[in-house]
Amino acid sequence: MVEIERRKYKRVTFDGLATLRSPQKEIIRSEVIDLSLKGVLLDIDHIEESESANFTLEIELDDSTKITMQLELKHKEGGHAGFTCTQIDIDSMTHLRRLVELNMGSSELLDRELEELIR
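^ that's the sequence the OP posted. Answer follows.
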């Protein structure tokens, strides 16, 4: 049986580190595997399955630029955890949009995803 791709948002590979703050304020260092306008997949050693809401993620792009978003845990398999973005500020969204656009190679495809995001 062929599995149909259900993602609405294109994921792009991103090689970088992130800091994840749990609902209990525990700081967890992790590696970003990929990200999209609506979520992120992290390589993470330990995370409690019961901790599903209110994570804060920071991805440092350089010394003065970072992406900060609020997340909800969607799934965990092995050492990977997938999160959905529940809130992001305008500056972080601008940086994320540019990062995704550069990796997608098509601003038109990204514009379609942005339209889907605001529906």
